[in-house]
Design brief:
CATH architecture of the largest domain in chain A: 3-Layer(aba) Sandwich
Number of helices of chain A: 5
Structural class of chain B: alpha/beta
Shape of chain A: globular
CATH superfamily of chain B: Aldolase class I
Strand order of the largest sheet of chain B: 3-4-7-8-9-10-15-16
Distance between the termini of chain A: 34 Å
Shape of chain B: globular
Radius of gyration of chain A: 18 Å
Distance between the termini of chain B: 30 Å
Oligomer: heterodimer
Helix content of chain B: 25-40%
CATH class of chain B: Alpha Beta
Strand content of chain A: 25-35%
Helix content of chain A: 10-25%
Number of domains of chain A: 3
Largest sheet of chain A: 7 strands, antiparallel
Chain lengths: 273, 304
């Protein structure tokens, strides 16, 4: 893989308040991207923000001779603020695809996606691929957000999933409360070997999902997020605690051993929000 | 014109003066997809301790103005796993391999150095007496001239390899430490390690790093590094390696002109994994443009 290469902003728009969808024209090497993998992105010829930012991949597709990569993000700080000002034709530096994506079974009855906020991004990409690659699987999605204004990617996910259930913290849309609560009401439908659960969202949400699923006979993978400097396993900035056994145990790198982990292997006893 | 880029660092021969700074280049293998490791003057690996270390709990890094803070806390596989699992791949590259070593006690340092005597493929040691992110060892040795000398002597006594001592900027007078380590037998010095700093989340009123403080690196610290290298080259007669915020060949050349015989590139590797090769290529370009046929003729040419 080459170090950072150029990518051109094809389009960018604000989807809902403070959330942006940027479409990048990238090299063909990104066609092999898998759901759950991420890219490191940096402004070209500008030292601010200083470090690259990791973004999970929202979608990758080819159109004619071109390959497009989509990133769905929320403005949370200096870096995302700077990216939100990008316009068509601007050039970025991009590295990827990086990390380990979701395990996608060749056969499966039910795919259950549980998303918190912009955590929908990698799950939407996963849903696209499950729809394409797994024959006859039913894909259902639980999405939670702070309020109606923060519900992103609804159109796309509703186009793929047979059922989409929504929760908002303030009750402005769907179930009033947390998305894990909403999922808990239905969870007995999925407690078998023919279902797979995938989740991405804030750490407190993943923590409560972990509690719900403890000891239950269902496979669940989560995509984790941490601050990163390099994205390639060198800076050791993005570590999370993993129970011993799985990928060595102890503090492992989200960028290299992850960002996707089995929820049962993540050690939620003392950290991760 | 044939350009000579080779330098000698206290008995360590480098084919060019560009090294990778410890802690920013893993064990080399992390970067093998992105650049030809054979091009480098040397690979300096992540600090090795006697036993494997988990390092500090996250969050460990935070971006700052023109730089970053880190408090990784010397997470590493331990010296024996390094020799068994990492060194075989590194040994195959045609660049010098420098093992950065770390201990909590002087005996630890000597033990790690001794174990590495038998490790084929290690060309030099870099003694880390300057890590600001660990409770014991590290900077505690590097900020006291007597202790710095003792660690240096202990490693020199047991090691068959050239010994580079890496100095901390977190002292009142770095030349004092430089003199003490030179007197204790150091073959070369590298400086600077990170500058201690911190950053606060004003919403939650907590430090951004779990360790509270961390080490500042990146272009923000380059002027400080350059000044300290200047002070040290005017104090000691052993070779000095310049480290701190080098992002490109221009930055590297500044250190050489000031008097460093080689440089280490650190944080820049994070934002461009191929940066070291770019720096070597651009250095060559500068040499041919300026008619410098031997890089040694550039070192220490600062006019003041």
């Amino acid at each position: 893989m080459k170090p950072y290469i150029s990518a051109t902003v094809f389009s960018q728009r604000e989807t809902v308040g403070g959330h942006f969808l940027v479409v990048l024209k990238v090299s063909d090497s990104f066609r092999e991207s898998l759901p759950g993998q991420f890219v490191m992105v940096r402004m070209k010829s500008c030292d601010q923000p200083f470090l690259s930012r990791p973004f999970s991949i929202y979608s990758v597709y080819s159109h004619g001779k071109n390959t497009f990569l989509e990133i769905l993000y929320k403005v949370v700080g200096k870096g995302t603020e700077a990216f939100s000002r990008l316009r068509e034709g601007d050039i970025l530096n991009i590295l990827g695809p990086l990390g380990k994506g979701f395990d996608i079974p060749s056969e499966c009855d039910k795919i259950v996606l549980i998303a918190g906020g912009v955590g929908i991004a990698p799950l939407s990409f996963l849903a696209e691929r499950c729809e394409r690659d797994i024959n006859g699987a039913e894909i259902v999605c639980y999405i939670g957000a702070g309020s109606l204004e923060a519900l992103v990617s609804l159109d796309r996910i509703e186009g793929i999933c047979s059922v989409v259930k929504i929760s908002t913290d303030d009750g402005s849309w769907g179930h009033a409360g947390s998305v894990t609560e909403l999922f808990r009401r239905d969870m007995e439908l999925y407690m078998d070997n023919d279902s797979r659960i995938y989740s991405c969202g804030p750490n407190p949400m993943l923590r409560s999902l972990n509690k719900l699923l403890k000891g239950r006979p269902v496979a669940c993978q989560v995509s984790l997020e941490e601050r990163m400097a390099c994205g390639i396993g060198a800076c050791l900035g993005c570590v999370v605690k993993i129970k011993s056994g799985d990928v060595g145990g102890g503090l492992v790198r989200v960028c290299k051993e992850g960002p996707v982990f089995d929820i049962s292997s993540v050690d939620y006893s003392e950290h991760n929000g | 014109m044939k350009l000579k880029m080779g330098v000698d660092i206290g008995g360590l021969a480098l084919k060019n003066p560009v090294m990778t700074a410890s802690g920013t280049f893993g064990y080399g293998e992390e970067y093998s997809d992105y650049l030809d490791l054979n091009r480098l003057g040397a690979v300096i690996v992540k600090g090795l301790s006697l036993k494997p270390r988990d390092g500090n709990p996250p969050p460990r890094i935070m971006e700052t103005a023109s730089g970053m803070l880190n408090a990784v806390g010397l997470q590493n596989v331990g010296v024996r796993a390094f020799i068994d699992d990492k060194l075989p791949r590194l040994r195959r590259i045609d660049s010098a391999v420098v093992a950065n070593i770390f201990g909590e006690t002087i005996e630890d340092y000597a033990n790690v150095a001794e174990i590495l005597n038998d490790a084929e493929g290690v060309d030099a040691l870099e003694v880390n007496i300057s890590c600001p992110n660990v409770k014991r060892g590290g900077v505690a040795f590097g900020s006291d001239p007597v202790l710095a000398g003792e660690v240096t002597r202990a490693v020199k006594n047991v090691s068959r390899l050239p010994v580079i001592v890496k100095l901390t900027p977190n002292v009142t007078d770095i030349t004092e430490i430089a003199r003490a380590t030179e007197a204790a037998g150091a073959d070369a010095l590298s400086l600077i390690n990170t500058i201690t700093g911190m950053s606060v989340d004003i919403e939650k009123k907590v430090p951004h790093l779990e360790n509270v403080t961390g080490g500042l690196s990146g272009p923000a610290i380059k002027p400080v590094a350059l000044r300290m290298v200047w002070e040290v080259v005017n104090t000691v007669s052993i070779p000095v390696i310049g480290v701190g915020g080098i992002m490109n060949a221009r930055d590297a050349l500044e250190f050489l002109i000031v008097g460093a015989k080689a440089v280490q590139v650190g944080t820049a590797n994070f934002i461009n994994p191929g940066v070291t090769v770019d720096i070597i290529d651009d250095m060559r370009k500068y040499m041919s443009e300026k008619g410098i046929n031997d890089i040694n003729n550039l070192i220490g040419t600062l006019e003041v």
